[in-house]
Amino acid sequence: MRTPNNERLTSDIADAPKARNASEPAKSCAERRCILSGEHGARDSLLRLAISPADSAGTCHVLPDPNAKAPGRGAWIGVSRAELETALAKGRLKGALSRAFKGVQLEIPADLPELVSRALTLALTQRLGLELRAGHVVLGGERIAEQARQGRLALLLHAADASEDGRKKLDQAWRVGRDAEGSGERGIVLPLDRAALSVALGRDNVVHLALNNSAAAERVQGALARLLHYSGGNRPALGNGDLASSGCQDEQLNA
User: Fold this and answer.
1) Which residues pair with 60 in a beta bridge?
2) N or C: which end of the chain has fewer CB within 10 A?
């Protein structure tokens, strides 16, 4: 993806806002504005849309850029799938994108909402794979339970089709290790079944997994929060089946 010829680049990856004065620290996390809602949010909590190189007819196609790495200008959205589908059907998305990519002939795929869903799901599974290779993922019910009771886990996750008994057993171990017995805290049920997790991690029958590193847990939380929000779900709080947005994620992962 690139910016069409003769188009002036407008950076959408600006630095964090400067401090108001010498004694006030600068914000550590750059914000972006959703072109549909007008609301601002942390860069890692929104999804970037980019455009492809112009085809033979001079048209650029709008595509999701979940890792925000495509060169050139971009537009950011932070709405749910239902809201995106409505904006697409009523022409509001076309108008917003035309303003964001002024002077560019655009083609918006009719299945853009589905493309976004797939891109966010892929971003989550790729993040889990990266954390596995970095040694931050714990697999296997017995290993997870042992490390959970020892308080060595930062995040507990279950496949969507994990059995209730299996979840309860690990959730209990999770609460013991967090000195939170009786609180009802539990791991997060992912919007991915065991088949999808097994493919993502290259392991057989992945039903439960955990993160043993707090920075890794935040990175996974960020990817999961975007997917849950887009799908119309809530963003649960860590350890309570809910997931709060992690804001700026640490991308210093060797992978």
Assistant:
1) 106
2) C
The answer to whether the pTM exceeds 0.70 is yes
Contacts of 142 (CB under 8 A, 6+ apart): none
Burial of residue 178, with CB atoms counted within 10 A of its CB: 0-12 exposed, 13-18 middle, 19 or more buried? middle
Integer Cα distance of 52 and 54 in angstroms: 6
Round to whole Å and give the CA distance between 201 and 195. 10
Q: What's the pLDDT tens digit per position in 179-209?
A: 999 999 999 999 999 999 999 999 999 999 9
**Partners of 64 in beta bridges:** 49
Residue among 180, 188, 192, 189 nearest 238 (CA): 188
For the chain, which domains are there?
Answer: 31-110 (3.30.1230), 116-231 (3.30.1330.30)
Helices (H), ranges, the chain:
81-89, 92-100, 112-133, 141-149, 164-177, 194-201, 214-231
